[in-house]
Structures are given as structure tokens and as C-alpha cells.
Amino acid sequence: MYPRVSQGRRLMGITIDWLACYAISLGFFAGSGSLTDRVPHARIPVLILLFAEYTIFVALGGASFGHRLVGLKVVRFSDGGSPTPLQALIRGALLMPLITAITFDENGRGINERFSNTVLVKVR
After folding, report:
1. Number of domains in the chain
2. I need a surface site. Which of 66, 85, 89, 112 has the fewest CB within 10 A?
3. 73 in helix, strand or coil?
């Protein structure tokens, strides 16, 4: 059994990931003009970028950018090892409808963690 990670840390990690991806989307995909003109054009690219960032970073390093900043890591639930690329893909896909990331079971795991057989743990 792994110790629970607080909802605050989880939310902080995904918020950092989302804000970083939003900043990149505004800079590269939203065109020119004032910020208020560019924001509507960044909505779809930010979701694509967030999915890619989250999936790739979790598959390669066990943690997204936001996870690292708040001291979290994704591990396999069965043995505590690094998640496989398929597990990272499942986590990323189920993270997009945010409700799966904030709905928890009796072990403190989100639905995205249950389906991917992973768990988020503290590293510091």
C-alpha cells in the first residue's frame, strides 16, 4: 500500500503542467495580436500539448513537469517500478476528461490510475 498523495499536490502538479502548455500554445499556435485575441485559438493546441507532455514525460521519466516541481512520481501499482509507455498513454488519455483525475477510490487512486495500474507517490 502506498501513502496517499494529497489532492492539493495533485492539483498543483496538473495546474503547472496545464499553465506551461498554455504558455507554449499561446506563443506558438495562437497567432498574433493582443492576448485576448489569441486565447481562443490556443484551446485545442493546449489539450494536445498537455496530452503529449504528460504522456511522454511520464513514459520516459516517471513524472510530468508539474509532478517534478511538486515532488511527485508515477510508479506501477503492482511493484513500484517505472510505468510502461502503455500505462503512461492510458493515464494521459484518461487525464483529458479531468473528472477521472479528481475522482478517487478507497486507496486514494484516481480512476486514471486504476485503469493504468499506476499510482502517484511522493518523492520528497
Report:
1. 1
2. 85
3. strand
